[in-house]
Amino acid sequence: MTEHDFATLAPGERKVLDRSFQPRLSEKRTRNILLSALMTAAGLALVWTYGVGTLAITGISLVILVVSAIEKVSYAREILVYKSLVRKLVHRVEGLQEIELTPLEGHPAARAERRARLDEAHA
Predict the structure, then answer these.
(1) Which of 42, 61, 65, 121 is most exposed by smallest CB count within 10 Å?
(2) CB distance 72 to 65 below 8 Å
(3) Secondary structure element (H or E) that encloses residue 25, with its range
(4) What is the number of domains present in the chain?
(5) The whole model's pTM is what?
(6) Residue 17 sits in which domain range?
(7) Are 108 and 90 a contacting pair, CB within 8 Å?
(8) Cα(70)–Cα(19) distance, rounded to whole angstroms?
(9) CB–CB of 66/58 below 8 Å?
């Protein structure tokens, strides 16, 4: 990629591209998910063991729900950034190949298949 290609990326896309070359970050994320699950299990075990009341169980459940919701929302937002980055990289490759750019709602594989069928029909 050229400096111009990097300049056209949004800050979030640059960050995602940089992170994709750092495998330690995905290991850290996996470790954090495991720690979150273990802490949740430990909290539920303590509630079960000591027979804490309904209010405490409700509070712990709400905390678990909030943490899960935050994790899911942040994951969904990151996936959207990945999709945007992939679209830009596909457009860059198409530009290098000097072919028509895939529209935002299009699918590059479907367009390639259609282009191959048209080439076969004209041959």
Answers:
(1) 121
(2) no
(3) helix 23-50
(4) 1
(5) 0.58
(6) 3-122
(7) yes
(8) 20
(9) no
